[in-house]
Each structure stands twice: as C-alpha cells, then as structure tokens.
Amino acid sequence: MFGVNLESSNLDCFMTENIDHSEARGFDMYEAELAVGIDAVRQAMSVCEYVQAQVTPEAMEKRDKSPVTIADFASQAVICRSLGLAFPADPIVAEEDSAALKEPEQKPFLDRIEQELTRAGIQGTVNDIYRWIDQGNSQSYCNRFWTLDPIDGTKGFLRGEQYAVSLALIVEGMPTVAVLGCPNLKTADGQSGVIFSAVSGRGASCQHTDENGSPQPIRVRETSDLTQSQFCESVESGHSKHDWSAQIAETLGIVADPVRMDSQAKYAAVARGDADIYLRLPTRPGYREKIWDHAGGVLVVQEAGGTVTDIDGKPLDFTHGMELATNQGVVVTTGHHHEKVIAAIQQTKPKSNK
To answer: Which of 64, 120, 278, 338 pairs with 52 at a CA distance of 20 to 30 A?
Structure first.
C-alpha cells in the first residue's frame, strides 16, 4: 500500500465541533450512522471480494501487491463517498490518500479502481475518485469524526484468507458506532461474509452480508477456567511478538495452540466466542498503534461484553489524531480474566518494553 500523506483539517474540526448531531435528529441513538455505515461497508466488501478473487498464484509468487492496492483505494472511495453524502460535516481519518495515484505510472491502478467502482454501480470522474479517497485525509482530533481502514490485513487479503473493512465513529474520544466487515469469516451456518456492528450502550450483533440477513446478538464466551482459554493472534510475527505471547500463555497455564488470523477479524473472533484473548504486543520500543487498526473492533468487543485496554491496563485513548499515542500495545479479552492477563504481561515484559 502507498503511504499516508495527510494534511491537518482544522476547518473540519471547527465545523464538527459546532454541530450537535444528536440534538438535531432527536436523539435517535445513531440509527442513521449505523445504517449508512453498514451499507457502505457492505458495498466495499463486495468490491474487495471481487478483486481478491482475481489474485492468482503467479501474482503471489511475484509478491504482486497490485490487487490489494486496487481494492484498498476502491474501498476507501466507496465508504468516504457514502459518508460524505450522508454526513458532509464529519471528518474522516483513513489510511490512504490519492497522491500516489496521480503519478503517470500509476494510471493502470487508477483505471482498475475506476472499473471496480463502475462495476459496483458508482459512476464518477477521475477527479471524483481523487476527492472521495481524499475525504479520508483528516488528521486532527475532533469531537466527532470517523476512522476507516479500507482493508485491514493486507497479507491475509493476498493469501485469500482473513481481512476486514473497519469503520468507526468516534464521539468525544469514544468509539460510538462500529461496523466491521469480514468477507472470509463464516456465519454459524457456514456462509462466508459477516458484518459485525455495534452502537455504544446497545450491544453488538453480526449478520450475513446479504442485505436480507437479520442481525443476531453476539456475546463473548464465558470461560471460567483461565487455563482453558484460547489465544487469537496475528499470523505475521511482525505485528505482535509471538515469543512473548507464548511466555504469557505459559505463565497463565494456557496450553491450547493459538488461533492465528490476520486483521481485526481477531476482534470479531473474541466478540462472538471463537477465542478468549487477543494480544497485540509491541514489536519495537516507541511504536504506537494507528486508530483505524482498532477502533471498530474495540467497540464490537466491548459491546459484546469484553474488555479492551493497552498492555498496562489503561483504556485506549482516541483523542490524539491518527495514533494511540498514549497507549502501548492492545489487550483484548472476554473480561473474565483481564487483570490476570495484564499481570502476566507485566511479569514477562521484555526489558526493551519496560
């Protein structure tokens, strides 16, 4: 994926802070935001699934990342366009910007992005596509803004495995609405494609991507015996320290092999009871997580009854722009043994992370 080149958006912040959305709509508990978010993520998932289906073994052997680049930008364009139409005053903090696409050598990518949007029923000029993507270029903290990861789990996408489309509305520093699309997770009856959603104080649910699918409430599972818990962790060791995770598991007496998958699908696994603990342990001193990698999953887990903190037990702080600047790592549990997990992390913490 191309890097981020964001500009501050103080005007967006000013506009947002002077609008009381809930009062204007009669305290409707974010029904409009949830509906728009689900529809936008569903449409983006469709685009991503179509592009992923074109990934060939030959492309994988050549380490060709063009499919994920195309899907990433198209997904961001789809969702930012929908949010811009529904909530034009809301800033969006997302992962991509269009700068790289404007280089002449990137025209094949731009052409493919335009094709995928057209296939999804979205007509627009090249400048429209640039504008839709760049609606996600806000950076400054505001009282109300969206954060988006158009494709979370690049390598999972390329392998044909797990990835996610993650969208969250942050209000006064708290994830308030979340939509987490997992195209390759299966429903209880074996269908691929699940959308997880949550609104603060109203619980979490999941549904098949089919528009006619009805949301079903989800809850974390209750594992009274900590030693019977199961970890869920990243496939890539570069995303979380697997050796440290193994030490923590040993300290807690957990013997089950971890479930490994890419992306925020791990949050979904904990939220619906497929796993008990997800650790995102720092891989190097000073690294800070990006908010779009966590905000959607955090609210889904919390509304399903789970607990999310950093490795020191502090709540995640979404008031510092793009990064969780005051947090180190992320710890996700069902809530039943969270303090014991934090204690084990502190007990085994490498010197470089102390």
So the answer is: 278
* Ordered strands of the 174-186 beta sheet: 92-94, 144-152, 164-171, 174-186, 192-199, 204-208, 216-218
> To which H or E segment does residue 259 belong?
strand 259-260
Start-end of H helices in the chain: 10-17, 21-24, 31-52, 57-61, 66-86, 107-119, 126-134, 154-159, 242-252, 265-271, 295-303, 338-348
Q: Report d(CA 300, CA 302) in Å as an integer.
A: 6
Q: Which two tokens stand for residue 353?
A: 């992370």
**8 A C-beta contact, residue 145 and residue 16:** yes
Q: Would you state the structure tokens that stand for residue 243, as one six-digit string?
A: 């050796």
User: What predicted TM-score, i.e. pTM, was given to this entire model?
Assistant: 0.90
Per-residue pLDDT of the chain (354 residues; tens, 9 = 90+): 433 333 333 334 533 343 444 444 444 689 999 999 999 999 999 999 999 998 876 655 556 678 888 999 999 999 999 999 999 999 999 999 999 899 999 898 899 999 999 999 999 999 999 999 999 999 889 999 999 999 999 999 999 999 999 999 999 999 999 999 999 999 988 999 999 999 999 999 999 998 777 899 999 999 999 999 999 988 865 555 679 999 999 999 999 999 999 999 999 999 999 999 999 999 888 899 999 999 999 999 999 999 999 999 999 999 999 999 999 999 999 999 999 999 999 999 987 665
Question: Residue 69 class from Cβ within 10 Å (0-12 exposed, 13-18 middle, 19+ buried)?
Answer: buried
d(CA 141, CA 233): 29
Task: Give the C-alpha distances (Å, rounded to integers) separating 272 from 164, 220, 240, 283, 308.
Answer: 16, 5, 22, 27, 15
DSSP annotation of 171 reads E
- At 229, list the tokens: 């818990």
The answer to whether the CB of 214 falls within 8 A of the CB of 189 is no
The residues annotated as belonging to the active site are 72, 154
